[in-house]
């Protein structure tokens, strides 16, 4: 029998961020993940744009200073509508970080670099026990503790169990929490490119049909400006692009970005991710809280995914810190209900909003593309709408 304050299932970026954040408040943490200990940087080719609220959480976790130097500042969020009869920009909306209180929107970091920094941090924390090659095989919540069995045969009793074990969460299933999932017949192709023109710390999102094509600033690569690409497109098209050789894919993305960056050169392997959205019916059960992709899955629009996860973690951390200060139970039903009241409406609103944005980005009929163009024009040129867009853009 192992006893701890918090058991976290899932050692991805969200799970490790939760461990570091909760450990900073003095809680004893056990975190388990099925990956082997020698996973190193992993194989995730994606990047994450950390927005200011998420950065604040990582600062409290004591890891942001290590993550920041590996990424690039997002100073401007540029949205380009190219949905006219010709493949050319017809409306460009620049949302400048100078219009925010912190002067920038966020920081784009490779998932590999974030993972390495988080793992290094957790290794230094005496109140964190990280168990690799380990999964939760059973869970029961009681009035006094959450009891989980592990794949190695151990039993863990914790005041709180946190499910950060992904979209196919086993803990969510053990707790009997239902969820709704829907697909888009759309995939995201992710890879890295270099280009001649500097990105000037501008994140560029191009809309035509099938989904947004986004280039996000990265640090220079081999002396050349570099950007990470998230190319959302119908699933068949994504597979065609994936199967191209580097030279053909480079020419294809240069054409679809309308040479805004000059010639683009593929500079990494590529990966394809099917697009889905997902929400649960509840965020809690006895002694259990869902966070990150166990609680919500969205397409990668507006950098919301992992930033929503960090918001889950910060909300839970804040509630537990207040309970600990009062000598109260950090896994009590009243605390978990407060967490759900705070997060579930926000989760449903964000998932629904991103779903609408994604469907709008996929418009093929000319009339619908013109409607999208009119909406972007209004947001860009009408002051109150612009301020609201900037507020949402920084994750607030």
UniProtKB/TrEMBL annotation:
Family named by the database record: Belongs to the UbiH/COQ6 family.
UniProt organism field: Thalassospira xiamenensis
Protein keywords: FAD, Flavoprotein, Monooxygenase, Oxidoreductase
Every FAD-binding domain range: 3-345
Pathway where it operates: Cofactor biosynthesis; ubiquinone biosynthesis
PANTHER family according to UniProt: UBIQUINONE BIOSYNTHESIS MONOOXYGENASE COQ6, MITOCHONDRIAL
Protein name: 2-octaprenyl-6-methoxyphenyl hydroxylase
Cofactor(s) the record lists: FAD
């Amino acid at each position: 029998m192992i006893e701890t304050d918090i058991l976290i299932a899932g050692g991805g970026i969200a799970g490790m961020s939760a461990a570091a954040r909760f450990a900073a408040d003095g809680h004893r943490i056990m975190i388990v993940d099925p990956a082997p200990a020698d996973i190193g940087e992993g194989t995730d080719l994606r990047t994450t744009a950390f927005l200011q609220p998420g950065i604040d959480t990582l600062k409290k976790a004591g890891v942001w200073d290590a993550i920041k130097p590996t990424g690039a500042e997002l100073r401007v969020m540029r949205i380009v509508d190219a949905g006219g009869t010709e493949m050319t920009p017809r409306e460009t909306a620049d949302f400048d970080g100078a219009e925010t209180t912190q002067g920038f929107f966020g920081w784009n970091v490779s998932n590999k670099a974030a993972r390495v920094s988080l793992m290094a941090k957790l290794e230094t924390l005496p109140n964190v026990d990280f168990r690799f090659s380990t999964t939760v095989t059973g869970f029961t919540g009681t009035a006094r503790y959450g009891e989980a069995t592990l794949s190695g045969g151990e039993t863990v009793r914790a005041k709180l169990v946190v499910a950060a074990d992904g979209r196919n969460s086993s803990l969510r299933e053990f707790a009997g929490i239902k969820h709704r999932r829907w697909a888009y017949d759309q995939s995201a192709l992710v890879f890295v490119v270099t280009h001649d023109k500097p990105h000037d710390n501008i994140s560029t999102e191009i809309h035509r049909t099938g989904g947004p094509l986004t280039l996000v600033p990265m640090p220079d690569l081999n002396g050349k400006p570099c950007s990470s690409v998230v190319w959302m497109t119908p699933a068949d098209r994504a597979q065609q692009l994936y199967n191209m050789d580097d030279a053909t894919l480079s020419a294809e993305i240069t054409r679809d970005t309308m040479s805004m960056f000059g010639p683009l050169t593929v500079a990494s392997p590529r990966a394809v991710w099917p697009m889905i959205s997902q929400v649960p019916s509840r965020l809690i059960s006895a002694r259990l809280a869902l966070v990150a992709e166990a609680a919500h899955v969205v397409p990668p629009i507006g950098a919301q995914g992992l930033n929503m996860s960090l918001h889950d973690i910060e909300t839970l951390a804040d509630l537990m810190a207040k309970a600990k200060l009062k000598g109260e139970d950090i896994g009590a039903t009243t605390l978990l209900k407060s967490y759900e009241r705070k997060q579930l409406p926000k989760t449903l609103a964000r998932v629904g909003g991103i779903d609408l944005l994604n469907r709008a980005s996929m418009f093929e009929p000319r009339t619908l593309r013109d409607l999208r163009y009119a909406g972007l024009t209004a947001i860009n040129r009408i002051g109150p709408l612009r301020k609201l867009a900037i507020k949402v853009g920084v994750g607030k």
